[in-house]
Specification:
Elements: H1 6-13, H2 23-43, E1 53-57, E2 63-65, H3 66-82, E3 85-90, E4 97-98, E5 109-117, E6 128-136, E7 156-164, E8 168-173, E9 178-184, E10 189-194, E11 205-207, H4 218-228, E12 239-240, H5 246-256, E13 259-262, E14 273-274, H6 275-288, E15 292-294, E16 311-312, E17 314-317, H7 319-332, H8 335-340
Parallel strand pairs: 3-5, 11-12, 11-13
Antiparallel strand pairs: 1-2, 3-4, 5-6, 6-7, 7-8, 8-9, 9-10, 13-17, 14-16, 15-17
Length: 341
């Protein structure tokens, strides 16, 4: 069987973007290279001194893990060296990182990235991931500005994630379907393993941190009870599967069918996940695979991005399951009235 590498696939698809003149293709290849370096370090994390916390806290109020810092540095270095990006927004940095260099002054793109999603799982050898989102810049020239990032998810040029698990996979979309590539360590290349990925319209898995049940909106509580009821016609009760790494949970549900929910809680009334570099790229991918992504009431990709680290609730996965969860939210949650107004 002929193996198709990520580089070959990107070159073949370059004709889909006549305006890009190869820059987007090079940018996606840069991401692939940085992902290989991060994967190498994740795989040997227990053998070198990069496990554990740095002692610092990031802008999200979360304790920074050593591998977070490493992954952030690798992706930033790749984007600066590549020259296709004029600014970067990262979960690990308070503000955007404008790139003021000769090679980047005419760059057409900005990248928003969560360098290591699920990093609290690093120390216990559970899958983690990288999430990225690519936009065309709004500013005319020079280093990128905040305006370049305050775009709706519908404006994304490309988005993807890398999952560092039992195998390393890169999944991405440019708005023409979703394709997955698995790293073959014997040749050091991402190879096309999941062409034209489609998620089932229904599933039997729900993914949510039920430990926070008491703090969930009533609509979410009612939906969880619905998932737990017996009903042979709809294959309920559904299975509860929650890894705690968003990329890993959503990747599993993308392939097998299911819903992932990270709602508002009394502690996080605006939700906890970040719209720009977590929810928007994941929503773009899942929609391109035939699924849905909402905040419980509205499509994620239609939400206005007003802040770099803006948070939102997320309901994402198989279309029929997301629709059902939204029914419960509209019927039972007090938030429904606020959304209507």
């Amino acid at each position: 069987m002929k193996v198709k590498t990520l580089g070959q696939f990107i070159i073949e698809k370059q004709a889909d973007f006549p305006y890009a003149k190869g820059e987007l293709s090079r940018l996606l290849r840069d991401i692939g290279i940085a992902a290989k370096i991060v994967n190498r370090e994740v795989n040997k994390a227990g053998l070198v001194e990069i496990l554990g916390e740095t002692g610092e806290t990031n802008v999200q109020g979360e304790k920074v893990k050593k591998l977070d810092v490493f992954a952030n540095e690798q992706f930033i270095a790749a984007f600066k060296a590549g020259g296709e990006v004029c600014a970067i927004a990262s979960e690990e940095n308070d503000d955007i990182i404008p790139i003021d260099s000769e090679i980047s002054k005419s760059a057409k793109y900005v990248v928003a990235i969560d360098p290591l999603d699920g990093s609290s799982n690093i120390d216990v050898n559970v899958s983690v991931g990288t999430i990225f989102s690519i936009y065309r810049r709004k500013s005319l020239s020079g280093p990128g500005t905040m305006e370049d990032f305050l775009q709706r998810g519908t404006e994304q040029v490309a988005a993807g994630y890398v999952i560092y698990g039992s195998s390393c996979m890169l999944v991405y979309t440019t708005g023409r379907g979703v394709n997955g590539f698995t790293l073959d360590p014997s040749i050091g290349e991402f190879c096309l393993s999941h062409p034209d990925m489609k998620t089932p319209a229904d599933g039997t898995i729900y993914s949510i941190n039920e430990g926070n049940y008491l703090h969930f909106p009533d609509g979410v509580k009612k939906y969880i009870k619905f998932c737990q009821e017996e009903d042979k016609a709809t294959q309920r009760p559904y299975s509860s599967r929650y890894i705690g790494s968003g990329v890993a949970d959503i990747h599993r549900n993308l392939i097998s069918g299911g819903i992932y929910i990270y709602p508002t809680t009394t502690k996080s009334p605006k939700g906890k996940l970040r719209l720009l570099y977590e929810c928007n790229p994941l929503a773009f991918i899942v929609e391109q695979a035939g699924g849905k992504a909402t905040d419980g009431f509205r499509r994620i990709l239609d939400l206005d991005v007003k802040e770099l680290h803006q948070r939102t609730p997320l309901f994402i996965g198989s279309a029929n399951m997301v629709d059902k969860a939204m029914e419960f939210m509209k019927t039972y949650s007090s938030e429904a009235a606020a959304v209507k107004n």
